Amino acid sequence: MTRQYILQVVVLLFIFNILGSCTKSTGAPGSTKEPEPMATQDASFLLKPIRIMEMTPIQPRPNYIQAVSPKEYSIVPLDIYRYSPAGIEIIGSATDNPEEGYQSTICLRVSSEPLAEEGDDLTPLGEMEKRMALYVNYTQMEMTGSVLKTLPVIHMPENPDDVRTAWLTPADYCWKAPLTLGQHQIEFTFQQTSGKVEHYTWVLEIVE
Q: Most CB atoms closer than 10 Å: which of 78, 156, 163, 188?
C-alpha cells in the first residue's frame, strides 16, 4: 500500500466514526436536536403514611420546645426519613413536612425565654447552640445548623422597657441523625447558666 492510500483510509474511518456518533446521540446524522432529558427520580414513596406509635410518652413536651421534626413517636419509613429533594441542600426545619423528606435530620424549634435565667445574655452568636445537644441512643449527634426565626434574648427583668427583653418567636435547630431500622431514643439537652440541665426525651421508629 502506498502512503497516500493509507492516509485516505484513515480519513474515511474518521468521518464514518463521526457520523455514527451523531446517529447514536441525536437520531440522525448532523442533527442538532437536543437529547431527551433524563427521567426524574420517582418520589412516589413520599405518599406513604406517617403513623404515630401507641405508647405512653416518656415525658410531656416542655414549654421551651414548640415543634419537633419528625414528630415525637412517629413511625417513619426509611426512604422518607433519608430523602432529600434532588439538587437542593436543606439544613432542615422543625416544621413537619414529610412530603419534602427529612434528609436524615432531626430538628427542634426551641424557645429561649423559658430557658433564660435572670442575668442571662443569650444574644452572642452561637450562645444558644453551645448550650444544647441532641443524643440518639446515648450518642451525641452533630448539629447541622439553625434557622433563626427570632433574635436571641437577654433577660433583664429589672428593666422591662429594654427592647432586648421583647420575647419573639423561637429558632429551629437541626442535627444530622443517620437512623437505621428500629426504635431510637432521642434526647435533647440544654445547659443553663446555673448548671441545671434541661432535657426532653422521646422515641422515633424507622420502618421499611
A: 188
Quote the cell numbers at residue 110. 426551641
- pLDDT, tens only, 21-68: 443 333 333 333 333 333 345 677 777 889 999 999 999 999 999 999
pTM of the model: 0.69
CA nearest to 143, candidates 152, 155, 153, 131? 131
Question: How far apart are the C-alpha atoms of 14 and 19, rounded to whole Å?
Answer: 9
Taking the CA atoms of residue 188, residue 193, residue 194 and residue 195 in that order, the dihedral angle to the nearest 10 degrees is: 50
What is the spatial distance between Cα 157 and Cα 124, in angstroms, rounded to a whole number?
19
C-alpha 104/C-alpha 84 separation (Å) is 8
Specify whether the backbone of 7 is left (phi greater than 0), alpha (psi in -120 to 50) or beta: alpha
